[in-house]
UniProtKB/TrEMBL annotation, chain A:
GO BP field: regulation of cell shape
Record protein name field: Rod shape-determining protein MreD
Domain of life (superkingdom): Bacteria
Localisation: Cell membrane
Transmembrane segments: 6-23, 35-60, 66-88, 109-131, 143-165
Annotated organism of origin: Draconibacterium aestuarii
Gene assigned in the entry: mreD
Presence of keyword Metal-binding: no
A GO cellular-component term linked to this record: plasma membrane
From TrEMBL, chain B:
Protein name, as recorded: Cell shape-determining protein MreC
Keywords, comma-separated and alphabetical: Cell shape, Membrane, Transmembrane, Transmembrane helix
Residue stretches making up the Rod shape-determining protein MreC beta-barrel core domain: 113-260
InterPro entries: Cell/Rod_1, Cell/Rod_MreC_2, MreC, MreC_beta-barrel_core
Lineage: superkingdom: Bacteria
Protein family according to the UniProt entry: Belongs to the MreC family.
UniProt organism field: Draconibacterium aestuarii
Cellular component annotations (GO), alphabetically ordered: plasma membrane
Lineage start: Bacteria, Pseudomonadati, Bacteroidota, Bacteroidia, Marinilabiliales
GO terms (BP aspect): regulation of cell shape
Transmembrane segments: 12-31
Amino acid sequence: MGRVLIKYAILFLVLVLVQVLFLNQVQFSGFANPYIYILFVMLLPVSSPKSVVLISAFLLGLSVDIFSNTLGMHAVATVFIAYLRPLIIRGITNREEDMSDYPGLKQNGIGWFFYYTTLMVVLHHLVLFFIEVYTFTNFLETLYRILLSSVFSIFVIVLSQFIVFRD
Amino acid sequence: MRSLLRFLIRNYAFLLFLFLEVVSLVLVFNYNSFQKSKFLNSSNYVSAGLYGTVNSVFQYFDLAKVNRQLAEENAALRTQLQMSISNSEFVPDTLGHGIVGSDTTFRFTPARVINNSVNKQQNYITLNKGRKDGIKPDQGILSPQGIVGVITSVSESYSTGLSLLNPRWNVSAKLKKSGFYGSLAWNGEDYQLAELLEIPFHVKLAVGDTIVTSGHSSIFPEGLLIGVVDEYEQPEGENYYDIKVRLATDFKSIRYVEVIDNVKKEELEKLEKNRIDGESTN
């Protein structure tokens, strides 16, 4: 239990640092920005209590907010996907009994993980970008930004599973 | 009562979810009041310290470019100095005193940019100077190329500000040639373009016209470069031009800036406030 806690604490710190120090500075075709910190919410054990998932998601979003001066925006989006996570996992898993407790790539296969990442990232980006622009005018342009950033985020998250989280 | 309790316990996850979302949304919508708080923005000790450390490593990679910019700025200042001496209307005492025109109310503090963005809808800038260097909220930020933004919150040794690339802030700007002024706002799309509003149709315009600060606010002195007219059109049924301004400042590459302190700002504000009070009592 203690080891698991430390492991997730380190994951939390590393993801926030990578996000604010590196990825927030990356600019891809002008306005796309990858957000990979939600990987923390994605990788929490499936059986963790809902309150733990929600509160850690809130703290995660708030940490990113404080660094990027977008108070509350990342928190809204991250809590949103944290709440939907059990539904998404149930929705894309065919046989409940085969499901591993750790929702990683190796445990559940690349097809499953890709689905999982896509749904989480797109939902997160939808909420985040619409709260950020604060309006539905330029609807298509915002959608284009969401699409571009999502592709970038999904790519980085799936790739990270091959490089860093191999075991 | 018991069934209510049972309902609450069964749905605690949903209620917690609602609670956290409401807290976050309150943070979003009350942003401006929280901006002034010390801890929840990037001028706080931890995040600004971290940005400062990382930036002090990465700044070495840009030294060549920074050197060139400084050299160019030096050259420009020297030209200005020569011109003002030959005009002999006034003789500046020291360059460090930062004199614009014949107006000695502005003082400049150099600072390094330790965090900056151009690709968000609301872009902010964090500087490595703070209260102990005399930085206060509502001071302007200027780069060698043109204006950058305005300071909004200050900690002991760091400060954050709104960049010009932020729809929460407009700057009063005028056409250098004709003197007509309007407000300059960013529309959240291209980090090189902003819009100049409220210029009426009877004003003569041309692509390439220079846009400078108007000096109507106490943040910026008059005549600082903002950009040039990139394109303009006369929308039907409107009274004002649609003017796109190409910004002089390259927000992607700013490293060193100057913070402008209006020494006589309090005096000015007091005077203007008195006038309003005087009118209301009449």
